[in-house]
């Protein structure tokens, strides 16, 4: 089978690999669609970060580079291993792509397995990836989805779960006002969760395309261009001078972080969703004087079932956020290059590893 493998910085190759072994307790999935994530772009430009090096194996997977990329994916079950009785061949599924130590409690009541020692991700630290034609995944991390959800849209459930967990971390509730810094995929999908919960959403974004996506998709009530609007002042105007209840930083850009601090009301909550590759400056005096609650968030924890329900019930429509569909051979030139150098022209680009979806 074909798979896109990460060898190192700016070095991704399409290799021919043996199909995975579907062993006891695992599920064999033929990948339908896989999204290109911002994390993949960081690995390509600056890595290895989450990916292991050539000579340092990941402590759980035991794998070194090269590894197959891709952690936002959907597919169809083609085989089930011994002991798997609750998933059938032909079923549509998505994957919660964790690599976690066997001794960690990942049960339905756990709230912290995503913070466990050496946690990493399928498609970044080994165990195959969604940018291969097939993959075998432990049953725990496989989530069935209704056939009524198109498989291309289903590939966005993983990043939507990131937004779901971020909203959970914020404590946002119906009637609140949220300001979201950045309308990339995570900013838009976080906004989608907020709207599904009845929150008024204000997005700040420089890209004309992404602002249009925010309003046309219905996930933002207001989409502001920070180059021409004073975002904090406009948020205060929209809230009668009070400020936003919650804010989500989805860019890893300093000026966005500063703007969100200004836009929040006293005792508001600021959630940092983006992965920062550098230290940020922070106005601690403002945090103290406004009693801002600053919270980090990473990935998701037992978030997929509730996220899938939002999609299956029709409360969230993922179709508007798909702006490109490509084959594996176009991964770098049509996918990575577009998202790195022309990201104002795209939101989520999906890859069909087998080409069947094209």
Automatic annotation (TrEMBL):
Keywords: Metal-binding, Oxidoreductase, Zinc. SUPFAM superfamilies: GroES-like, NAD(P)-binding Rossmann-fold domains. Transmembrane segments: none annotated. Belongs to the zinc-containing alcohol dehydrogenase family. Signal peptide: none annotated. Residues 8-328 form the Enoyl reductase (ER) domain. InterPro entries: ADH-like_C, ADH-like_N, ADH_Zn_CS, ER, GroES-like_sf, NAD(P)-bd_dom_sf. CDD domains: butanediol_DH_like. This is 2,3-butanediol dehydrogenase. Its cofactor is Zn(2+). SMART domains: PKS_ER (SM00829).
């Amino acid at each position: 089978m074909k798979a896109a493998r990460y060898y190192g910085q700016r070095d991704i190759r399409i290799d021919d690999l043996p199909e995975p072994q579907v062993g006891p307790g695992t599920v064999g999935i033929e990948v339908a669609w896989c999204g290109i994530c911002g994390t993949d772009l960081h690995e390509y430009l600056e890595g290895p970060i989450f990916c292991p090096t050539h000579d340092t194996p990941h402590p759980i997977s035991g794998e070194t580079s090269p590894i197959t990329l891709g952690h936002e994916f959907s597919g169809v079950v083609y085989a089930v291993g011994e002991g798997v009785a609750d998933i059938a061949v032909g079923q549509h599924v998505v994957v919660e792509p964790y690599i976690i130590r066997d001794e960690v409690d990942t049960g339905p009541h756990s709230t912290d397995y995503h913070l466990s020692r050496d946690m990493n991700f399928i498609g970044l630290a080994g165990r195959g990836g969604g940018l291969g034609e097939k993959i075998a995944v432990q049953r725990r991390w496989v989530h069935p989805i209704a056939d009524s959800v198109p498989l291309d849209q289903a590939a966005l459930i993983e990043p939507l779960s990131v937004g779901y967990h971020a909203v959970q971390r914020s404590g946002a509730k119906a009637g609140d006002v949220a300001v979201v810094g950045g309308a990339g995929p995570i900013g838009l999908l976080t906004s989608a969760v907020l709207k599904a919960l009845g929150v008024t959403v204000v997005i700040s974004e420089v890209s004309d395309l992404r602002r249009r996506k925010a309003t046309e998709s219905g996930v933002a009530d207001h989409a502001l261009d920070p180059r021409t609007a004073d975002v904090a002042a406009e948020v205060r105007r929209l809230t009668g001078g009070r400020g936003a209840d919650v804010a989500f930083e989805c860019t890893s850009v300093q000026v966005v972080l500063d703007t969100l601090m200004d836009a929040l009301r006293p005792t508001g909550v600021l959630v940092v969703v983006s992965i920062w590759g550098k230290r940020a400056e922070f106005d601690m005096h403002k945090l103290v004087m406004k009693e801002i609650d600053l919270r980090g968030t990473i990935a998701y924890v037992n978030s997929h079932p509730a996220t899938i329900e939002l999609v299956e019930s029709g409360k969230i429509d993922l179709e508007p956020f798909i702006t490109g569909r490509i084959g594996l051979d176009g991964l770098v030139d049509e996918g990575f290059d577009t998202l790195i150098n022309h990201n104002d022209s795209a939101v989520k680009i999906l890859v069909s590893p087998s080409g069947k979806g094209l």
